[in-house]
Design a protein that fits this description.
single chain, Gyrase A, domain 2, 2 domains, seven-stranded mixed beta sheet, globular
Length: 395
């Protein structure tokens, strides 16, 4: 067999459609054996650097910067940060635990909450209308509001130097800590997000990019690639009250995190990595589990019992016991890469027959109806729609 290979394949994915997404797309899938996480990342980086150089004459940085997942979320609110934007999120919850502003104090003293500040240099000139528009924008991401402070005079830590309805509810020690930590200067504006960690990251992360590009708060570089590594193995589903796989259930944990699988799954990190460029994910991958006992432990964390694991994945567990090689890889979205290199606004512009927002093909009118014979061949039975008619009597 082959010790490594790549394939260019069509993929179908059921997800919401955006400018950089299509339900049918082309993937460059690379799989290797006996390569470490670092070796795979290095090889893929060299590939992308060569492609951009040869095709559009662009020189990407060498090496690409790397961020841990935790650092990316803390500083940028995103696992695919746009590093062209110079703004960053700053954590301030620890200095707001004893303020009289209940919105801040409540979140600061709760588990799973976050309060982050976003400093906008020169932002004190923003109009009330602009601030209202940004408040409405973050509402898309679940934020219930957008607190702000206009820094008119950084030397006056009161309602004269700091203009905001919330200043009167923040004591001087908190105001001083916020100004010092954010590096705020006279003429700046500070936005605040206070909510569950995911809401704050999503809302301020998106606001960071929006303001950065609208106000020219960027570094001027055409291309800013970044590797995001050290993803968590698991995420806890509050509704179902169980652990789920962040990537997929076959991703290998870090070698020195194996003992955390049973004792501390929430802090178990994976051998997973994504490559982002200008705020878009170009590709992602992982090193997979090659030991049956580790795979069984992961199934246990995910609530997959021994009987269910044997029924659904018995073939895999057997193969791992026979001696599967260490293996890993990465897949790039070819259409998305071409979209960025061509400077196109939408992935639809670089696909021959793109699908509509309803995932329909205008050329073939697919998906079309199916007849009873086709359904019988596939052993599919459709549930008949029951129409209820209500007869209204005359009184």
């Amino acid at each position: 067999g082959f010790d490594r290979y790549y394939q260019i394949v069509k993929c179908f994915r059921d997800e919401d459609l955006r400018a950089d997404r299509q339900p049918e797309f082309t993937q460059v899938d690379i799989e290797t054996s006996f390569m470490s996480e670092g070796e795979i990342v290095q090889l893929m980086e060299e590939l992308i650097r060569a492609v951009f150089r040869e095709v559009i004459g662009a020189e990407l940085p060498d090496p690409f910067p790397r961020l841990s997942y935790g650092e990316a979320m803390d500083r940028y609110g995103s696992d695919k940060p746009d590093l062209r934007v110079t703004l960053e999120l700053i954590e301030v919850a620890d200095v707001l635990k004893d303020v009289s502003f209940k919105v801040f104090a409540g979140v600061a003293n709760s588990a799973g909450g976050r309060i982050a500040a976003l400093r906008v240099p020169g932002g004190a000139s923003l109009t009330r209308g602009e601030i209202d528009a940004y408040t409405q924008f973050v509402g898309i991401y679940g934020a219930r509001g957008l607190a702000y402070i206009k820094v008119n005079d950084v030397t006056q830590l009161n309602e004269i130097g700091l203009q905001s309805p919330i200043v009167k509810n923040l004591h001087q020690q908190a105001l001083r800590a916020i100004v010092e930590r954010t590096g705020a200067q006279s003429g700046d504006l500070l936005f605040f997000g206070a909510d569950k960690r995911k809401v704050v990251n999503d809302a301020l992360g998106a606001l960071r990019v929006k303001i950065g590009h609208e106000k020219g708060l960027v570094n001027g570089h055409a291309w800013e690639p970044v590797w995001v590594v050290d993803f968590p193995m698991f995420d806890y589903d509050e509704e179902e009250r169980r652990w789920t796989a962040c990537h997929h259930p076959f991703t290998s944990p870090k070698d020195d995190h194996l003992e955390r699988l049973q004792d501390d799954p929430g802090n178990c990190l994976a051998k997973a990595y994504d490559l982002a460029l200008n705020g878009s994910e170009l590709g992602g991958g992982s090193v997979r589990i090659h030991r049956s006992e580790v795979q069984e432990q992961v199934f246990q964390v995910l609530g997959i019992g021994e009987e269910e694991a044997r029924l659904k994945f018995g073939f895999l567990l057997d193969a791992l016991k026979y001696g599967a090689p260490p293996h890993g890889g990465l897949a790039f979205g070819l259409d998305r890469i071409v979209t960025m290199m061509a400077g196109a606004e939408s992935i639809r512009d670089v696909i021959a027959f793109p699908k509509t927002q309803r995932a329909q093909c205008l050329l073939t009118d697919a998906p079309s109806g199916v007849d009873d014979k086709q359904l019988r061949e596939l052993h599919i039975r459709l549930r008949q729609k029951v129409e209820t008619q209500v007869e209204v009597g005359r009184g």
